[in-house]
Amino acid sequence: MRKIDPRRFQIAKRRTSREINRQIALTLIRTHQPISRADLARLMGTRRGAASVLVSELLHEGLIFEGAIGEGRGRGRKPTFLYIDSRERYVIAVDIRATRTFIMATDLLGKPLTGISSFPTNREVKTLISDLSQRIKAIVADHGAVACKIIRVSVPGVTDTSYCCILHAPTLGWRDVNLKDPLSTAVDFPVQVENSGRACALAQVWATRGGAHTGDLAFVSVSDGVGVGIVVNGEILRGRHNIAGEFGHVPLSVDGPKCSCGATGCWEAYVSNLATLSRYFGRQPNDPKPMSAEKAAFTIEDLIARARNGDSKALAALQLTARYLGLGLASIINAVDPGRVYIGGEITAAWDLLEAPLKAAMAERALTALAARTEIRTVSIDEHPRLRGAAALLAAPAFAAPMVA
Description:
Layout: H1 16-32, H2 37-44, H3 48-60, E1 64-69, E2 80-84, E3 89-96, E4 100-106, E5 117-120, H4 125-142, E6 147-155, E7 158-159, E8 165-169, E9 174-178, H5 180-187, E10 191-195, H6 196-205, E11 217-222, E12 226-232, E13 235-236, H7 268-271, H8 273-281, H9 293-296, H10 300-308, H11 312-336, E14 340-344, H12 351-365, H13 369-372, E15 375-379, H14 385-399
Parallel strand pairs: 3-6, 6-10, 11-14, 14-15
Antiparallel strand pairs: 1-2, 3-4, 4-5, 7-8, 8-9, 11-12, 12-13
Helix pairs in contact: 1-3, 2-3, 4-5, 6-14, 8-11, 10-11, 11-12
């Protein structure tokens, strides 16, 4: 039961019910397109006339369009199908990581319009913005007949409540970095910045087609670091200072290895790709001692390949990561009790090697037997949830349920 905050509320107005119905109509069209007016009215449980009024408004505002004409039923008029209008606008999604930055253009529903390109991430902010702006301008030039709507960027760090400043991105070594304004100036488009863990969670909530789990879920992205996004009652959990869900920096042990954030024993220091590779080579994560060129170029994919080819040391490193991952997941489950947990990142390619030790560790720490059986799903790196989540930032407000009172 939600209590009304007497200092922060929105009262229902005469148009409130119509605004809610408009968003319901948009969501149903998005989920079921192509869809006729008659089928939309049936799904909404309303009269066809009322649905037609909503459709006329959405057509006038350019949010939907009429497409193909379907087969008629009986002697009635043939139906004209409705679609979300994402034809003449697109969004450029950017995923900044400690090692590489990825970029692609999508339509307003998140459907890719270009292939995904990447380049090494330069942690010097001015250089990174210069590299990024050149690539964005090239994409815009290639799509001259279509209007770029906005640039959406996911970053592995804490952003402020205005989505302008990156307050702390440990794996990048950034503190209080304003990425939004300089990048917007460089490319002459609006820019929004979001935490990568929340972008991944948003990608699951706002899947292109229907069927996304939109109740309570957690997304754990394991890559150069560990990002976590939490969804409660279909809404991204942010907290008062926009830092909710930073489970990657909750300690498994205060005496553990040093984390990129400067603390010791953080979950990230046990399960990130860097932590797994360091374990294999007998090093501590974030060890300042130089590595050989061969070790520096060695990737988590290389480690997985060795484990599959019989390297017992590689397999042990992966399975110990799986155990630590399971222990941390139990903490998330005990704290939030999500209906489903998604795991993304390169490590998911070895899920058949990881699942058993991960679930055993979860069962050790989960408070109840039911909690230990929380559904775990993997998301392939080929799905690029960070990029899809960044793209979804544009569409989400148009379909989001409004908070009244």
